[in-house]
Every structure is written in C-alpha cells, then in structure tokens.
Design brief:
By secondary structure, the chain is α/β, with parallel strands linked by helices. It is 38% helix and 23% strand. 39% of the residues are buried.
Length: 190
C-alpha cells in the first residue's frame, strides 16, 4: 500500500496536535506504519500551525510535499485556503467555516479575504465545509472543534465508529470523554 497523507492545519490553541495524535493512534492500532510530524509554525495561541499524518505499509518521512496530501483537515477557513497547494488532484479539503482574524487583519494592515468557500470551490477542490464551531458548542465546548472535524473526517475512512471512539477514549481526559464523544457523533452525522 502506498503511503497516505493527511495535513491537519489551523490556528494555535485549536487542538490540531491532539487531532493528529488521535488519528495517529487510530492508524497504529490498525497495524499501519505511521509518522506524525511535530507542529510546524507558531503553535502558540493565534499562530498558523500544520501537522502531517502519514501512514501505509512503510513510511520513511513524516513530511508531506506540495500536491501530495490525500486530505487536508482545516480548523479555520483562511488556513484551508493557505494550504490548498498541498492537496493532490482528487484530494479532499474538509474545513471548519469559522474565521479567525490573523494579526495583519487585527492590526488593520489587511482584510480577511471574502468569499473563501466560493473561491475554493471555484478551484475545483472537493470541499467539505462544516460549521464545526456551532457543533462543538452544541456538544458542550467550543474547544471540541477538533473532535467534530475528526468525526467529519471519519466518514471517509473504512474504520468503524467504535474504533474511532476507542482512539478518543485513549486520547482525552476522562472528565471530557462524554463531551468529546458527543462532538465526534455530531461531526460524523452532519
């Protein structure tokens, strides 16, 4: 099996690292060779971050080159647009529709780009956009956007819901488990 590649992108503080570790744990449990990158970028709250998850029979590097990502899981709309050149032809972009202003927008030096969803669709990208923030809040916490998006991503895998839930149980503190299971279910159902 050729290596498969998923990029997880977002803004520092959104839980991208937990999402990549959870996905890596699930894939390891299925017997794949898995490489999960460290966070690249400004992982402090508010900076752009990216992690790579690669798996297959044998994976030699955790890095994904431009045009090689089978999927991009984006926690914020501008981050989705920022990383599209890494998506391979026929790849899928799953994104939260939430917009978080980067520093140039906050300081007034730039404007947040308008109509990003339309522009991405105009590029012929297989775009799956979901309001993950609202679903996370419905589950009980705005911090569960990452798990909502993993629920959405899970629809494109052949793994059972029980396998995903087991990875969640192994990855989140027990006091947040039920809320995260609800977030996952809401993401998977939308």
């Amino acid at each position: 099996m050729a290596a498969k590649n998923i990029m997880i992108v977002g803004v520092g503080g959104q839980g991208t690292l937990l999402a990549s570790k959870l996905l890596g744990r699930l894939l390891l449990g299925k017997g794949f060779d898995v490489k999960v990158s460290e966070v690249h970028g400004m992982s402090q709250r508010g900076g752009s971050v990216v992690t790579y998850v690669r798996w297959g029979e044998k994976v030699y590097s955790p890095i994904i080159d431009k045009g090689q990502a089978d999927a991009i899981l984006s926690f914020e709309l501008l981050e989705a647009a920022r990383w599209t050149e890494y998506l391979k032809p026929g790849g899928r972009l799953i994104t939260n529709t939430q917009q978080i202003n980067p520093m140039p927008v906050i300081t007034g030096a730039a404007a947040y780009p308008e109509n990003l969803e339309e522009k991405l669709r105009g590029l012929g990208i297989d775009l799956d956009a979901v309001d993950a923030l609202s679903l996370a809040e419905e589950a009980g916490s705005s911090k569960a956007v990452n798990i909502v998006l993993l629920g959405r991503l899970s629809k494109w895998f052949d793994f059972t819901e029980a396998e995903w839930l087991e990875a969640i149980e192994q990855s989140v503190p027990p006091k947040f488990l039920e809320m995260n299971k609800k977030a996952f279910a809401l993401g998977r159902a939308c």
